[in-house]
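#structure-requests
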Amino acid sequence: MRWGRRCLPHTPSARGQSPLDHRQWSPVQGPAGPWRGGAGGAALPLLLLLAACAPTPARPPEAGLAATATVAEIRSGEAPNCNASGAAIHLGGGRFVTAAHVVDGSVQRLRGFCPPDRQGQPAVTLGVRGTEAPARILRAGRDRVDAGIGQRYWGGEDLAIVTPTRALPALPAATPCAAAPAPGTPALLVTPRRAIRTRLLAPWSDPDRAFGSYLEIPETLAPGESGGAVFEAASGCLAGIVSHRDSDGGPPSTRLVPASTIARFMQP
């Protein structure tokens, strides 16, 4: 798993994703289609020249683009074959939220050959703009592993709150969404590997209600993207963080711990 950022080529996918700087342009449309001029068409070159010289009104930046600055990198474990990495989102006051399975030692335990540290879990490191600091876990969700099903977290709380033990560069704080987003809401996915446009799908609930509910996005994520943030593009609020991939055999999708679960988990 790579520890760092990788820029994607400026190529929209067949599923409508695009890098965050992608823009689409279309001809000006009149009531009857593209405007080609009428009886006064001889003046069209001059009009086009004047239009080209006119200042273009500035488009207000999407709040979601500013929210991407709240995302840090996180790693647990030190040995090359025994670490787990992902994203952590700053919630303010030096507290970061990430996926519990990135930091609670479960990745190492499931691999079966990774020794824990003296406290029984791997060391955790936060990274912000190239600066790293050790971190400690303030709280983490509890998991259960069932044969034929795999790892699940009680209440859907694949969450951990961590804090650095020494100073890191300052980050703004993300704001969890106050209400569940409607299916189809445009969103931004931000992980240590990439930042792309996507959309939110309808919620999904585990057949066993004890293991909670999740949001979904129509993306296939790679190792190292757990804990990634999904922001509503328009408002910039944090809709959820990446938990796990859907393995039901249908279209590609990834499940997110929703903002409502994050808010509940943050309560003392």
